Amino acid sequence: MTSPLQGKIAAITGGASGIGLECVRQIAASGATVYILDRDHQALDKAREELGERVHTIEVDLFRYETVDRAIETIVSEQGRIDILHVNAGAYIGGNVWEGDPDKWDKMLNLNINAAFRSARAVMPAMMKQKSGDIIMTSSIAGIVPIPAEPIYTASKHAVQAFAHTIRRQLAPFGIRVGAIQPGPVVTPLLNDWDPERLKANIEAGAMMQPSDVAEAVVFMLSRRKGTVIRDLVLLPHSFDV
Q1: 201, CA 20 to 30 Å: which among 10, 104, 127, 172?
Q2: Do 42 and 57 form a contact (C-beta atoms < 8 A)?
Q3: Rg for the chain (alpha carbons), in Å?
Q4: Taking the mean position of all CA atoms in its chain, how far away is CA 34?
Q5: Contact partners, residue 48, CB within 8 Å, separation at least 6
Q6: Chain segment 162-177, per-residue pLDDT in tens
Q7: Keywords, A to Z (predicted)?
Q8: Distance CA 143, CA 139 (A)
């Protein structure tokens, strides 16, 4: 049976590691051509060698917004279209606000909000012209339920939710679907910034997921028939208490 993603052209920001890399793997396995947009050139080279000819890489710096614009232009020039953009790159900061470093907040907020919004914007003209496309945004359960352990991160993901819901309405007349996936805790490099005691408690409780769990859900979202959209998909470990 032919996959609904067969022949599609996709791009994934932050696709060289973690959730992004697993999404690259599964979307490519579903028959799509996938471009990884990331700044880690060594990880890009490794991913391209491992995943084969369906996977292409473009080195971008999401804090230099013009590099994302150029990457999308390159994809459209090479392939004639772009069908999927997964806005996935993000960072994490937790902890009490009064103990936090606002300068570090700024970097995370710029990545989670500004860079995410501008990445989505970069693909809109091409998708609007072709009257089709999917934009998936990696949000978080923190975008749905405020998490006291991570107020700044929670705020950034609430912003992602608001953006996704409003552009979905703006882009629907052009045949473009917009959805957000809201995972709970996933075993990725972002866990390096978790409070050690909180991380230990979650691991012992079995309240963690793997990147493959999220990637399977993203493929499910993308493979729905035309005319339907999964606006939000909350994905949680069974024992996660929220």
Answers
A1: 104
A2: no
A3: 17
A4: 14
A5: 36, 55, 56, 57
A6: 999 999 999 999 999 9
A7: Oxidoreductase
A8: 6
- Identify the segments of the chain with pLDDT beneath 50: none
Q: CB neighbours of 94 closer than 8 A, spacing ≥ 6? A: 149, 150, 153, 193, 194, 195, 198
Give the pLDDT confidence of 46-60 residue by residue, as tens digits: 998 999 889 999 999
Catalytic residue from among 35, 65, 92, 153: 153
Provide the pLDDT for residue 228.
95
Contact 6, 30 (CB under 8 A): yes
Token digits of residue 167: 């552009």
- The H-assigned helical ranges of the chain are 18-29, 41-51, 65-79, 102-109, 116-130, 151-171, 196-204, 211-222
* Distance in angstroms (rounded) separating the CA atoms of residues 52 and 56: 9
Q: With beta carbons less than 8 A apart as the criterion, state whether 229 and 168 touch.
A: yes
Q: How many CB atoms lie within 10 A of CB 161?
A: 18
In percent, how much of the chain has pLDDT > 70? 91
* Residue 175 near residue 132, CB atoms below 8 Å: yes
Other beta carbons within 10 angstroms of residue 50's beta carbon come to 11
**Which residues make beta-bridge pairs with 110?**
none
> For the whole prediction, is pTM greater than 0.70?
yes
Whether 153 is catalytic is yes
Dig out the tokens for 127 from the structure.
Answer: 């998708």
Angle at 141 between CA 154 and CA 237, to 5 degrees: 140
For domain 9-233, give the CATH number.
3.40.50.720
Residue 54's Cα: distance from chain center in Å? Answer: 19
Query: pLDDT at position 241, please?
Result: 65
